[in-house]
Amino acid sequence: MKIKLLVAAAVVAAIAIAVSLASSPAAAWTETVATILRWVTILLIASYATIRRSLTAWIAVGLLAGAEVGYDWPGAAAHLQFLGTIFLRLIKVIIAPLLFGTLVVGIAGHADLKKVGRLGIKSLVYFEIVSTLALLIGFAAISISRAGEGVHLAASASSATSAEPLTVTMHSATQIITDIFPENIAKSVAEGQILQVVVFSILFAIALALVPEPKRRPMLAFAESLSETMFKFTNIVMLFAPIGVFGASLTQSAILGWAYGYRSQSCSRRCTSRSSFLFCACWFRSR
How far is CA 160 from its chain centroid? Predict the structure, then answer.
């Protein structure tokens, strides 16, 4: 049943692509048919997500539904933009306490700091390798897809009248290193200085590891409870992810159009965006 729904969604999406490519300004009915077919595709994917009970599939549904609603009814974007903003705020509020709890438990929970140091070095090497691969993949993807090319954003009246040149302040190497270390942990959390929170958490964990066991245990138990609580908190926030993605996708689609400038792009660009859609559907199935 699941495979049949995905196949049906792929077939309807292919028909919608064909109708969209064959549409012309003189034939308004083709745009109506294409819109109906796109909604049928979204409903089929939503049925698949309902049967599978997969959060990832529902996020895909929210993404596609938001893009379609923003394209069909751009006026709704201004009223539903807050959905994406709320989701982003909930994501940001997780970071600092989750980092603090996990780092403190991971470092102070081990009696041998030498082993922790070796593990930290391996983690840094792994982080650098994976980050480099991610950058290369992103660079290759944007170079091949040319996403955003041909999109021209109209400047608002207020920004056009009050346009001022941007002033860029260069930071020296010493200033960059200094900014890594926090002067006030509450200020760092409030300003979203994640690197400062990480440095504080590591130093706090090392200091806690040097404290005798009777005095270390209560704080370590608190950090463990904080970590478990924040993981449960994250699970609750992720339940809101499809709605948050819906709001964010709706806003972008209302501003830039379906598939980021659907009508203004060439046929090859349109096919690329739809192929990406089918690739994502297959990837969700493989998971």
Answer: 31
CA angle (65, 67, 69) in 5-degree steps: 65
CB-CB contact of 245 with 84 (8 Å): yes
Which pair of tokens denotes residue 59? Answer: 């996020």
Distance, in Å, from the CA atom of 269 to the CA atom of 261, rounded to the nearest integer, reads: 10
Higher pLDDT among residues 39 and 150, named by residue: 39
Please choose, from the candidates 261, 273, 258, the residue with its C-alpha nearest in 3D space to the C-alpha of residue 70: 258
Say yes or no to pLDDT of 237 above 80.
yes
> C-alpha dihedral over 158, 257, 148, 33, to 10 degrees?
-170
Q: Is 168 left (phi over 0), alpha (psi -120 to 50) or beta?
A: beta
Residue 200 burial class via C-beta count within 10 angstroms: exposed 0-12, middle 13-18, buried 19 and up: buried
147/170 Cα distance (integer angstroms): 30
Q: Tens digit of pLDDT for each residue in 96-113? A: 999 999 988 888 877 666
CB-CB contact of 234 with 98 (8 Å)? yes
Query: Which residues, at least 6 apart from 45, have a Cβ–Cβ distance to it below 8 Å?
Result: 5, 6, 9, 57, 60, 61, 64, 281
pLDDT of residue 60: 87
Separation CA 287–CA 184 (nearest Å): 43
Q: Is 27 helix (H, G, I), strand (E, B) or coil?
A: strand
What's the confidence (pLDDT) of residue 278? 39
Count the Cβ atoms, other than its own, within 10 Å of residue 248. 21
pTM above 0.90, yes or no: no
Task: Determine contact, residues 188/197, Cβ cutoff 8 Å.
Answer: yes
Partners of 27 in the β-ladder:
24
